[in-house]
Amino acid sequence: MPSETEEWFSNEVLSWRIFGASVWTCILGVGWLIAFLFGLQFTQTPFEPFGAYLTTIGSLFSANTVFHVTLLIACVLQWTRLQAKHTSVIPYVGTSAVASVTRSLQPDLFFSFLQFSGFGCLLTWCILKTGATSFSDLMVPCQEDSSLKESSCINHKHVFLLLAGTFSGFLEGVAFHFQNGNYMNLPIIGLDRYTLVKLKLQPRLLSFGLSALNTLKYFYIFYLFGSVLTGGIYRPSGLSYTELISPSLAVSCWLIVFFIKVISVSISSCLSVHCTTPLHMELHNLLQGAASSQPLLSLLSLQELSDQTMGRPDVRREVFALSLPGGHPHTWTSILESTNRSLGSLNKDLSELLSPPKKEQIEDIGPNPATPIFSPNIRRLAPNASNFKQATPVSVRPSFGERLASQWTDIQESMKKRPLVGWLVNTPADVAYRKIFARSQAAIFAAEILSHIASSSIKEDSYGVVQKYLPEILNCLLSLEQNIDRCRGQGIVYRKKTADLPDIHLKQELRCAVKSAIFRIVIAFQEHILAVPVSPEFKQKIKNYQQFLEA
């Protein structure tokens, strides 16, 4: 059953933040629409830019445009609602191509891909109908045969652009679900929403244009393949070869793909900025939120708890206080449980991955039969061990099911070594590590919370509430730092394409946060930190931190 804090966050905070993000995306959508309408007009009259500008302004105030702009805004609102349903604060780590295809066939994701494709097609239609170009109408007068001048034919250029928008929408769905387009990272530096949205969109416009070119390349390949397959190589169905290489059509198609990409990323950026705005709550509500099963609420609560324990002495005073009657540190106990849930689980998973438990070797009871026994107190009731012939165990023939499973495993392993099949089914060696580090954001806030409280306890903890847990805190942070360092060369493959992945960034941020937390505690306690009972290895580490030898 959801707690009071969870209900308040879902009904009164998150819903209004999604509404605010929807308003922002609608404003951005109209702005992008005006810019791209001018681009479409400019492709028709490239030597008359002022005329293209006047045509764009005139088309915006026509009666027919109001319906299509309203439909575009409704489409953007529905697209925002769809993306808000699938957002996540934990980055996605892919395994293999087959696993991704299998996951995409789940009903929820499958219908999401259909909606992404539909939104791309509908937005393209709205753009084409709003801008008065030769691609705007589906039916145009026939021009090839003079006898058919009064009749209408299908405008294959219009269909071509609609298919391009549909294809682009589908690829945006793939990027959203499998390339961390739905990942909402919490900003490190608190800025206003306009600046954050600008920082997310402005530096990426050039990469959007290059990505649109890449999408256009694949779309042309698929369109050519489909038209040749249905109409033949000499007379393909749809557009002819000369029409496909038309510069105005190619630029218009690129603009539409660019528009679909910009709208999709604008929606995800506005959702990320609005939904990750810091929470401002009292301490008891933050503790309830930190223990919540809702990931976004838990992270935002830990983030605010880290800020409050750093800058508010009254909050730290409540942490160090004891309950009356009873004298129990309930607040500190709740904080310890919340931080240990993220730090402890991450540390445990890394330890198990780096040092898997060994299988217990069951030894036979009694002496080795190959060793002769020479004892005057034991009567020799058996022949000498050197003359003793051991009975060879009878081999049990495996069953049909076991042999079938073994053969299937051998087939799978042999198929994995083949280039194409291996690319489809092989899992990268660093996936297990990356899945653990994808959960690092909560551990980063937990390390900051513990370090702020522990470093302040030397002056503010009158009852020793926190200081008696100092050995456990140091052991946890030092062992986590040790495990992170041990991950170097343990299967983590840094490639050019994976260097900018969110989980890789989170790993680096976690390492910096843990080191900063240890430095903060060591500097606060100065030489007294050496009196904390820890292992000799960790004690040497603490001395290195004291001498600023750790970097």
Present the secondary structure layout.
Elements: H1 4-44, H2 49-60, H3 63-85, H4 97-104, H5 107-130, E1 139-141, E2 152-154, H6 156-178, H7 193-201, H8 205-231, H9 241-244, H10 247-275, H11 283-290, H12 295-311, H13 313-320, H14 330-354, H15 400-416, H16 419-425, H17 431-437, H18 440-460, H19 470-486, H20 502-525, H21 536-546
Antiparallel strand pairs: 1-2
Helix pairs in contact: 1-2, 1-3, 1-10, 3-5, 3-10, 5-6, 6-8, 6-10, 7-10, 8-10, 11-12, 12-18, 13-18, 14-17, 14-18, 14-19, 18-20, 19-20
Could you explain the architecture of this structure?
The protein has 551 residues and is an all-alpha fold. 66% of the residues lie in helices and 1% in strands. It is built from 21 helices and two strands. It has helices at 4-44, 49-60, 63-85, 97-104, 107-130, 156-178, 193-201, 205-231, 241-244, 247-275, 283-290, 295-311, 313-320, 330-354, 400-416, 419-425, 431-437, 440-460, 470-486, 502-525, 536-546, and strands spanning 139-141, 152-154. The chain is globular. 33% of the residues are buried.
